[in-house]
Amino acid sequence: MSTAALWGAVVVSGVYHGVNPGMGWPLAVSAALMEQRGAALARALALLAAGHFLAMGAILLPFSLMSTLVEWERALRLGAGLLVIAMGVYLLLNRRHPRILARIPPGRLVLWSFLAAMAHGAGLMLVPIYLGICGDPDAAHRAAGALMAGTLGAAVTVAAVHTAAMTLSGGALAVGMYLWLGMQFLRRSWFNLDVVWALSLILVGAIGAASAVWQGGA
Amino acid sequence: MNLRPDPTFHPTAKMAMQAPVETLAFTLLLSPDGSQPDGLAVIDVDPASKRYGKIVHSLFMPNRGDEFHHFGWNACSSALSPLTGHAFLERRYLIIPGIRSSRIYVIDVKEPLKAKIHRIIEPEELFAKTGYSRPHTIHCGPEGIYVSTLGGGGADGTDGPPGIFIMDCETFDILGRYEMDRGIQDKHYDFWWNLPRDYMVSSEWGLPPQFENGVVPEDLLSNKYGHTIHFWDLRARKCVQSIDLGANHQMALEIRPAHDPAKQYGFCGVVVDTTNLQGAIFTWWRKEDGSFEAKKVITIDPVPAEADDLPDLLKGFGAVPPLVTDIDLSLDDRFLYVACWGLGEMHQYDVSDPMNPKLAGKVEIGGIVRKAKHPNGKDFGYGPQMVEVSRDGKRVYWTNSLYSTWDDQFYPGDRGAAMVCAEVGPNGGLTLNDFWVDFPKGYRAHQIRLEGGDCSTDSFCYPNV
């Protein structure tokens, strides 16, 4: 997969997480309505973004350290792909919502966003994409400027780009609903993404694992 | 699990008011002497239907002596909370506790005319998992289904304080006690909350020996029933403040917060003031600093009566106390309905200004002394008791039984079950219409739930805009 396509995947996954109500955009609307001022919406979005960014970082950083072991690269990508598939299968079989989220007070949005992302494997979804960006030999030559900062820098960049896309898309929905669409939109736009989400993890994991196998054979 | 949110879940109270009106009501039937099994009646409340006012289906339980009282849904508008993401639950099951047996029935009403038992949780399981007994109020919230109880452990329910326990909202397994720090709370009755503001309010009736065999006059006159309301940090499960309404304000029962979560106040009904036999409504509110306050805003006077017209319990007082046994708030937070079970009156207060309620309407029906008939000429036994308001606020339904043994003390003899409906004028006012239900013999009628949710089931997570 080309570097551009992988970065595209980082953005697309961000948009995907952003529009999912489970990642928190309705909380931003709720904050604005409760406080009766638009600034509360921006503040809530920023807190949600911070939590999401931390969750992405918490997952990507260990992989970035491991990916410096170049000779293990293929095994790492294969293992990461299988791990992501396993998370997807787990979420597919266990359709229960994590009760821990119900104990978090409404004011603790960073913590809520962090745990929501962790519980749903949002960070794991990025791992195969991230390892693709780090490990693609063509990318290392061609996009040297952006990627030579090392795997650590790449992890931070991937998390930041992903979170920015997530915040912009979720934020657009939140602002649209707050200013124009009204609460009716909440009911219309809220789809049960549980199965789709789990399948997305399996798909991303499978692509990651397959590309490791394929690259190894080439 | 649905793919879209259940259409009966509403983000705001205002949107719930605009939803299609109810066509069915669910009313609990109880056999006061336990000679027959308790049941659930499904009643046609669609005026356009040929079976208007008829019981179109009834389901009786396999046990006797449960004493049905209050009940609630497995899921409500609280499922749209942006924090907890249970948006795809179905409003499908009624959770019906037996207040005397401590048995809990989960009834599947997906097809209301084929309502059937989905699961029975035996009392032993409740005792073992929570140490509580006598389950009562049901609300669905962040961690699942919350159920208040009136008794602790032991045969008479006084081994440890009563409290709230949580049930899983999908499997209905009992998960355990709610409280982590209950403070001074040692009695229980009702509870409700403001979900986005993360606080809960609970109230007190009395311990099981104080109500199971009837009201205990000595306890009442020495102010030993509950008179304190408790405020909780909902998600921390911690009691943060307790307000004593004054020991003379005996039996602080129903808690009715404003439905719009932007408003931080609510009401609590007090059955009787032992200094003057008045009934009372308190308004409680949350202050800027997060602490709470409560103030008496409505008093209802007793009515003098001849001793000969009074039951033994009241002969010495020469008056009928109003006995405020249930209250309910319309979804627009405008009208508070107050059942005066002793007088035989249903009051409607305009509470647009919650600190200055104004009487806006009144219906006289039943009553210890008055015994007012329904406009259709039929006797209405007992007095107006469990009250439920339609989502659009235009119809108010009520039944007439309080609690088996208390019914018999205040209204000796069997007076029959009744359920009536009153219509609300555009600017208030309350008039009985011709809705009338004939219940099976030997039964009494208790709480009413309306199809698709009503004014005492749903918690809303977003403010009206």
SSE inventory with pairings:
The complex is a heterodimer of chains A (218) and B (465).
Chain A lengths: L2 H17 L5 H11 L3 H28 L6 H21 L15 H11 L2 H14 L1 H6 L1 H4 L2 H32 L2 H6 L4 H24 L1
Chain B lengths: L12 H5 L6 E7 L8 E6 L10 E6 L11 E2 L19 E5 L6 E5 L7 E6 L1 H8 L2 E9 L2 E8 L12 E4 L6 E4 L13 E4 L4 E4 L5 H4 L5 H5 L6 E6 L4 E7 L4 E9 L7 E9 L5 E8 L5 E9 L2 E2 L7 H4 L3 E2 L3 E6 L5 E6 L4 E6 L7 E7 L22 E3 L5 E5 L4 H7 L8 E6 L5 E7 L7 E7 L15
What descriptors fit this protein?
heterodimer; A: 218 residues; mainly alpha; 0% strand; B: 465 residues; mainly beta; Methylamine Dehydrogenase, Chain H; 4-stranded antiparallel sheet; 6 helices; 30 strands
Looking at the structure, what is the overall shape of chain B?
globular
Number of structural domains of chain A: 1
What is the mean predicted local confidence, pLDDT of chain B?
A: 96
Multimeric status of the protein: heterodimer
The number of helical elements of chain A comes to 11
Structural class of chain A: mainly alpha
Low-confidence segments of chain A: 142-148
Largest interface: A-B, 31 and 35 residues
In whole angstroms, how far apart are the ends of chain B? 29 Å
End-to-end separation of chain A: 14 Å
CATH homologous superfamily label of chain B: YVTN repeat-like/Quinoprotein amine dehydrogenase
Query: Based on DSSP secondary structure assignment, what is the total number of beta strands of chain A?
Result: 0
Name of the top-level CATH class of chain B: Mainly Beta
CATH topology of chain B: Methylamine Dehydrogenase, Chain H
Strand content of the residues of chain A, in percent? under 5%
Protein model, in words:
The complex is a heterodimer of chains A (218) and B (465). Chain A contains eleven helices and no strands. Chain A is mainly α and 218 residues long. The longest helix of chain A is centred in the C-terminal third of the chain and has 32 residues, at 150-181. Residues 142-148 of chain A have low confidence and may be disordered. Chain B contains six helices and 30 strands. Chain B has 465 residues and is mostly beta strands. In chain B, strands 3-2-1-30 form a four-stranded antiparallel sheet, with no helix packed on it. Chain B has one domain (13-450): Methylamine Dehydrogenase, Chain H, CATH 2.130.10.10. In chain B, 7% of the residues lie in helices and 38% in strands. Chain B is globular. The mean pLDDT of chain B is 96. At the A-B interface, helix 2 and helix 10 of A face loops of B.
